[in-house]
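tool=predict chain=A
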Amino acid sequence: MLDEVLRAVVAIGAVLLILVPEARGVHPQLGWLPLWLLGMPLIAWWAAHRFRLPGRAVDDAERRPSRPLRRRLPQARRRVRPRAPVGGLRTAA
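tool=predict ok
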């Protein structure tokens, strides 16, 4: 149902943009008409189908690692430095 409605709106918007020159302009309340006649219905149709983002098409084979993942080791602890003598630094004589 939604798919059919969005297809019809996209088709009507495309026909209006092609045949009516005023549809390619700007309306004072709506703004740029091609955005509302074609852009927004196309985005709604794209979102309704949950398409992937353009330019991010990755195969399932590329997404899965070819070798098993390494087991994570616990984080290494910092070494404790010996504290300086309380009396200050001593110099060699």
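The radius of gyration is 32 Å. The longest strand covers residues 26-27.
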